[in-house]
Amino acid sequence: MASRSENTVTINQPAEKVHAALTNADYWAYIAENLSPEPGEVNEFTTTEGGAVATLFEVLPLDILPEAVRAMISQALKVKRVVTVGPLTDGAAHITYVADVKGTPVDFKGDINLTGDDSTTTLAYANEVSVNIPFMGPAIEPKVGEALGELFTNEGELTNTWIAENA
Hints:
Elements: E1 3-11, H1 15-22, H2 25-34, E2 41-48, E3 51-60, H3 67-70, E4 77-85, E5 92-101, E6 106-116, E7 121-131, H4 137-166
Antiparallel strand pairs: 1-7, 2-3, 3-4, 4-5, 5-6, 6-7
């Protein structure tokens, strides 16, 4: 059983610039390096017809997870996240992501709808979190969803900074 959560991130940059960042390997290297106290890496980056696919190996601190999950894990979380960015059409793009937290019963995936205009961009996340722990999983999943919301907000702030410094 999985839990669903939604959150919205607003970036004070035009949709065209946000999409250009999301389809740039240097942007993803910046995200992997700065999203967490311990830097991650871009394992693979491929451009597609108007979009891109980024495979990130990220290291997330334990404190992002609820206490009930932290009790079962002794080290930082190693996450493989694959982000697929679709083409930008009329100020909108569809993005998907799939993430697997190595060595834990936690994984998450979702859809992101990018919409925007000449000044701001909105990323609307629809997340699905699975915590495969008998009896406890359904109670923990919403807390992981909240942590994801915080993580994506931080990623939005980093996106704004990267665009301001690189576009």
